[in-house]
Amino acid sequence: MHSTHGIGKFVELVQREVSSGGRNAVKTQREYLVLEYAPAKRGYPGDKLFVPTDQLDQLSRYVGGEAPVLSKMGGSDWAAAKGKARKAVRDIAVELVKLYSARMASKGHAFGPDTPWQRELEEAFPFAETPDQLQTIDEIKADMEKPIPMDRLLSGDVGFGKTEVAVRAAFKAIQEGKQVAMLVPTTLLAKQHLETFTERFAGFPVKVRPLSRFQTAKQARETVDGLADGTVDMVIGTHRILTEKVAFKDLGLLIIDEEQRFGVEHKDSLKKLKTGVDILAMSATPIPRTLEMAVTGIREMSTLATPPEERHPILTYVGPRSDKQIAAAIRRELLREGQVFFVHNRVQSIQRVAAQLGELVPEARIAVAHGQMGEHQLEQVVDDFWERRADVLVSTTIVETGLDISNANTIIIDRADKYGLSQLHQLRGRVGRGRERAYAYFLYDENKPLSETAADRLETIAVNNDLGSGMQVALKDLELRGAGNLLGAEQAGHIAGVGFDLYLRMIGEAVSTFRGEEVDGPAELRLELPVAARIPEDYIDSERLRLEAYQKLSAAAAVSAKDDAIDLVVEELTDRYGRPPAEVEGLLAVARLRRRAAQAGLTDVVAMGPNLRVAPARLPESMRIRLQRLYPKAKLLAGGEALVVPLPTAGGAALGDADLIAWTGQLLDQLFPVATTAASPAAS
Ligand SMILES: Nc1ncnc2c1ncn2[C@@H]1O[C@H](COP(=O)(O)OP(=O)(O)OP(=O)(O)O)[C@@H](O)[C@H]1O
């Protein structure tokens, strides 16, 4: 994405010779990123934009979920897309801030301090809590003890122990005679959480009931009556809690698992349920830092970022489907008394696939589960698998969100190329939740060609299998869902229009504006000097690695980067590719100059023929006097929108690259001092 022209397609890196023009023209080799835009008129080839590699800060990687529409060059297209997104963002910001102020104004219940039973419950936890779990639990209790209703989002990778946090929050509410409702997206998850909560509350006079399609009408009615008269302390269920118009005697806490999975049709009944009660939302989709900052103070967030101890990364294999491979994987798991998930997402062919597996591994007891089965049959099959009366569960993705079966530590995903990244990540999270080493096999049909994005997705999930990495960059679509979780699913369209990062920045700005805070969007800086500033092929031959190096350098030169960021990039380049040659030194010096100019809030430092143009140049009187003394031939354009200084020459010839950069750095130091600790280029 280009800040002016919008969404373009990266084509290649090219070298170009440019001259600085004017009398003593200097020719230098520059490297450019070539981007292709939509054609101005139908039927014409797309327009091409050449972006100098030392100006990559104008570019950011587009991430928006589905394939983006290329903008037309010139910026009107892009401005329109931004305008639309900005309007949508403003609406969200208003919504978010309204919710926030409504919450601040409403009266919630201030829970008392922990009871002795609370401590007893918590000491009975069979594991050592992770530091994040402990911190999150404390944050939640503090929120609950405030008179203002809590609205906290707990995000954490699959299997990181969110449920235990919910157990303790629920118990605290029940201790005060309040009721708790837990909303989960699937019947299986409802059943699983019911088991966990019932087990954890055993020994305490607490009544927990399920409410999903697994319950008969009679059971459901008993539960609904119990909630109305207060004899049922906690209900764990699916959207049936919303559709059954459940009335609570005294609801104190609402826990929502994977809120973004509840369709907009439940939005209103959810909103009604939420009024005046403490809310704990849980999500396995990482909420991006940028979004977190954007909504800080509007929505409290907690993150479980460390895995429970002794969790091993899941060994992930990506490859063509082969019976031998499948048989070996199942046998290995059965040998260690373990169980296997086999995910096949087509109901029509799932029985045939199960029969095939039965032939492949006759000694394995195979069970089949899919969403179109009757309630009881589905529950029976899942129970069989749970109670280890089955070794292999062949199922559709219904297994994705639920089933914390610590004895199942192999998952085989058929036609893995058919799944999105987040789904693969969540499916894989179904195994490796205990201490056993877990295995994941992502198989594809070698007779059906893999699309490039599918191959890229599988490659990404195979490479990123360390725990909790959240696979930041690659799992942007998870983050998109995370954003949907926070902002409402209908925003996906706008995010696609301008890309994820810009959209989040817009939210942050909109929220700050709405709160009357000053929004200082980073000024776009154009810095162009006729110096050799590029990475030659003989230093880094791969285009991808060269692009990566340019991007790292551009990020390090940003105002928000740390002072030593550029030095760290130099170290990394030197370690990987050896001492940087002169041209790369030029690139590094330009990066330092760029950062310096950005810190001074300049928008232009551009060599034009024999002069250097610096803008804006609103110099105080004292600085003008200094300017006259130091640069007598300099011209300060009226209103201070620019300063034009003749470029120095050495005996009639143009300065060498390093000298020119040093001279420019010195000029900035002298005329545009900033209160920064960074050593200025002149000094370096
Ligand atoms: N601190 C811990 N140490 C070891 N194991 C833990 C810890 N906390 C939870 N577990 C166990 O890890 C497993 C996964 O926990 P849990 O189901 O709460 O994860 P989750 O974050 O809710 O996963 P998902 O996102 O899939 O719902 C459970 O068997 C739980 O008992």
Automatic annotation (TrEMBL):
What family does the entry list?
In the C-terminal section; belongs to the helicase family. RecG subfamily. In the N-terminal section; belongs to the UvrB family.
Quick one: where is this thing mainly located? cytoplasm
Q: Which Gene3D superfamilies match?
A: 2.40.10.170, P-loop containing nucleotide triphosphate hydrolases, Transcription-repair-coupling factor, D7 domain
- UniProt subcellular location: Cytoplasm
Specify the Helicase C-terminal domain's residue ranges: 329-479
Keyword Zinc attached: no
Q: What is this protein called?
A: Transcription-repair-coupling factor
Q: What class of enzyme is it?
A: hydrolase
Record domain Helicase ATP-binding: where: 143-304
Q: Which UniProt keywords apply?
A: ATP-binding, Cytoplasm, DNA damage, DNA repair, DNA-binding, Helicase, Hydrolase, Nucleotide-binding
What InterPro entries does the annotation carry? CarD-like/TRCF_RID (IPR003711), CarD-like/TRCF_RID_sf (IPR036101), DEAD/DEAH_box_helicase_dom (IPR011545), Helicase_ATP-bd (IPR014001), Helicase_C-like (IPR001650), Mfd (IPR004576), P-loop_NTPase (IPR027417), RecG/Mfd (IPR047112)
Q: What does this protein do?
A: Couples transcription and DNA repair by recognizing RNA polymerase (RNAP) stalled at DNA lesions. Mediates ATP-dependent release of RNAP and its truncated transcript from the DNA, and recruitment of nucleotide excision repair machinery to the damaged site.
Question: Superkingdom of the source?
Answer: Bacteria
- What's the Enzyme Commission number for this chain? 3.6.4.-
